[in-house]
Specification:
It is a single chain. The protein is mainly beta. The chain contains 2 helices and 12 strands; from the N terminus they run αβββββββββββαβ. The radius of gyration is 18 Å and the shape is globular. Its main location: membrane. Pfam families: DUF568. It is found in: Membrane.
Amino acid sequence: MAMSKPIMMISIFASVFFISSAQSCKNYTFSNDTNFESCKDLPVLEAHLHWNYDQSQKTIHVAYRAKQNPKGWIAWGINPTDSSMIGTQALVAFQDAKGKMKAYSTQITSYVPLMEPGPLSFPVSKLSAEYVDNEMIITAVLGPLMSNLTAYNAGNSVSDGIPEPHPFLEPNLTSLEMLDFLSV
């Protein structure tokens, strides 16, 4: 009997290790075989950020992915002027009524934003989205950029093609951090 306890602990530890390592951004393979030099597992919302930074152009090729149900939405953005949600220049993704992924940019101008498509304060190109293995993924090239403050979020529903506000709960309210694209 005494022998079976250590074996059980090792099995449980190994299971936890494999589950947590499968969630790491470093082990993720994108469906289009894009490779990102840097990535970070974000602390809330089961989200991950991947990027390639072009220092000479001050642009970033970014992929933001997060667990989400097909009727929800995700958003990731940069606030070039402040450390709050207001002022964030965001990328949004969700499935439309026909089940096709839709991605666009929007500026967050209030704590209950309209989330309608619009231009950002910096150029955005190659914007796309996909839904793979219960994750929504937004990719784009941004810049030139002068700031590294990032925010990310997720919501539960989309109404008439527009994401509805996210819950005002701890994970959503704390999904903000300073990220230096060159140091991680």
